[in-house]
Write a structure and sequence with these properties.
By secondary structure, this protein is mainly α. The protein has two domains: 93 residues; 69 residues. The chain contains four helices and no strands. Helix 1 packs antiparallel against helix 2 and helix 3 packs antiparallel against helix 4. The radius of gyration is 44 Å and the shape is rod-shaped.
């Protein structure tokens, strides 16, 4: 290994030592060990050290083809010590500022989203729902009113026929009366069944449109 390669290796390892200090402080800042369970902290620690080791080996491989020498560990320690003594406070201040800025931007985006998209969409959906329900209630009231009018007209039309039929009924023989009575009883049973279905459907529609 030439002196140039050794010099570049030492500079790279000093930089990696400082980077390790930054990464460690960043990792501890976001991990919050006291608020996590032990097994979660253990898994995160393994992943962190694995990533740092792989990155360190990659940089070392790019600089001197992966040759490990004693001065590499000295350079790493020097870079880490330099970070702790000179850069740690500055980096932590910048890191905290970036975190607060990111949180403020995220909150601002959330508020803009609620103000510009979520709230208008919610009021639009509520308005459409109210319009549909109002239209349904109006249609139901119209149909109900028309049904009453039609029934009233039918009563007026068929009332004379009922009077005439009642008068004729008195002259019908008893066997024929019995036959028609049985027929009317069957029809009445079917009509009662259909009427119950219609009344149940009417009650459900009334409950739905009154909500």
């Amino acid at each position: 290994m030439s002196l140039t390669v050794q010099f570049y290796t030492m500079l790279a390892m000093i930089a990696m030592g400082s980077f390790f200090g930054c990464a460690l402080d960043t990792y501890n800042r976001f991990l919050k060990r006291s608020e996590r369970k032990r097994w979660i902290v253990f898994i995160h620690d393994i992943l962190f050290w694995l990533c740092i080791s792989l990155l360190l080996f990659y940089v070392l491989f790019m600089v001197n083809s992966g040759e490990v020498r004693f001065y590499i560990f000295v350079a790493l320690f020097c870079g880490f010590a330099a970070y702790q003594a000179l850069l740690k406070r500055i980096y932590l201040s910048i890191l905290e500022w970036w975190i607060q800025a990111a949180v403020s931007i995220a909150r601002m985006i959330t508020r803009l989203f609620r103000l510009v998209i979520f709230n208008p969409a919610r009021w639009l959906i509520l308005g459409l729902a109210a319009l549909v329900l109002g239209t349904g209630r109006a249609f139901y009231a119209i149909v109900k009113g028309l049904a009453k009018v039609i029934l009233w007209i039918l009563k007026i039309i068929f009332k004379p026929a009922i009077w005439i039929g009642t008068a004729i009924w008195h002259f019908v023989p008893e066997p024929a009366k019995k036959f028609f009575a049985d027929l009317f009883a069957n029809v009445a049973g079917v009509w009662g069944f259909l009427k119950n279905i219609v009344m149940k459907a009417k009650k459900r529609l009334s409950r739905f449109f009154k909500k």
